[in-house]
């Protein structure tokens, strides 16, 4: 008798919990890294409720370890005395060679570490950390101008294609 293969149920394999949309506007992202996060029990429960904010969050390297600061995870609604403090400093898990590489780039250039996205991967909370360089105001205006031009081009091409097909 042949055994039937069981179908795996896809449950939150890559669900995004929060994104930092402002980061891509204010910074030029040079490289991204996937980090694990050291959390306490009520933090992951609160994150699964979708209550997390990456506004004003940044990462630092202290004593050869990477920490994320100002990451706001509110207290768990059903928690009691076991609840966590919402803006505590949380340790990020990276490989040693990645930490050394980041440490060199942050120390030498005017680069910073910005959390871009928090998501679940196979039931574990992950943070996408970006090595970023700040944009000047004229760079931001140039990006907005380029995006508007691309939108106009696609709109005009759509009109021309509709005119040909009609």
From TrEMBL:
The superkingdom listed in its UniProt entry is: Bacteria
Q: Which UniProt keywords apply?
A: Cytoplasm, RNA-binding
> Among its keywords, does the record have Cytoplasm?
yes
Function description: Required for rescue of stalled ribosomes mediated by trans-translation. Binds to transfer-messenger RNA (tmRNA), required for stable association of tmRNA with ribosomes. tmRNA and SmpB together mimic tRNA shape, replacing the anticodon stem-loop with SmpB. tmRNA is encoded by the ssrA gene; the 2 termini fold to resemble tRNA(Ala) and it encodes a 'tag peptide', a short internal open reading frame. During trans-translation Ala-aminoacylated tmRNA acts like a tRNA, entering the A-site of stalled ribosomes, displacing the stalled mRNA.
Which family is annotated?
Answer: Belongs to the SmpB family.
Sorted alphabetically, the Gene Ontology BP terms of this entry are: trans-translation; trans-translation-dependent protein tagging
> What GO annotations for molecular function exist for this entry?
RNA binding
PANTHER family according to UniProt: SSRA-BINDING PROTEIN, TMRNA-BINDING COMPONENT OF TRANS-TRANSLATION TAGGING COMPLEX
| HAMAP family the record matches | SmpB (MF_00023)
Q: Show the SUPFAM superfamilies listed in the entry.
A: Small protein B (SmpB)
Organism, by scientific name, is: Corynebacterium phoceense
Gene Ontology terms, cellular component aspect?
Answer: cytosol
Q: Where in the cell is it found?
A: Cytoplasm
> Which PROSITE patterns has this protein been placed in?
SSRP (PS01317)
InterPro entries given for it?
A: SmpB, SsrA-bd_prot, SsrA-bd_prot_CS
Q: What is this protein called?
A: SsrA-binding protein
């Amino acid at each position: 008798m042949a055994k039937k293969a069981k179908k795996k149920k896809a449950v939150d394999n890559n669900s995004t919990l929060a994104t930092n949309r402002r980061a891509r506007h204010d910074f030029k992202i040079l490289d991204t890294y996937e980090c694990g996060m050291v959390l306490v029990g009520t933090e992951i429960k609160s994150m699964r409720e979708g209550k997390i904010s990456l506004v004003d969050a940044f990462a630092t390297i202290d004593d050869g370890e990477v920490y994320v600061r100002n990451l706001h995870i509110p207290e768990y609604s059903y928690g009691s005395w076991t609840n966590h403090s919402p803006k505590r400093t949380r340790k990020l898990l990276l490989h040693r060679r990645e930490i050394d590489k980041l440490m060199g780039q942050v120390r030498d250039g005017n680069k910073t570490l910005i959390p871009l996205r928090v998501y679940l991967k196979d039931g574990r909370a992950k943070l996408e950390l970006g090595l970023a360089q700040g944009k000047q105001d004229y760079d931001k205006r140039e990006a907005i101008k380029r995006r508007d031009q691309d939108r106009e081009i696609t709109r005009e091409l759509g009109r021309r294609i509709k005119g040909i097909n009609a």
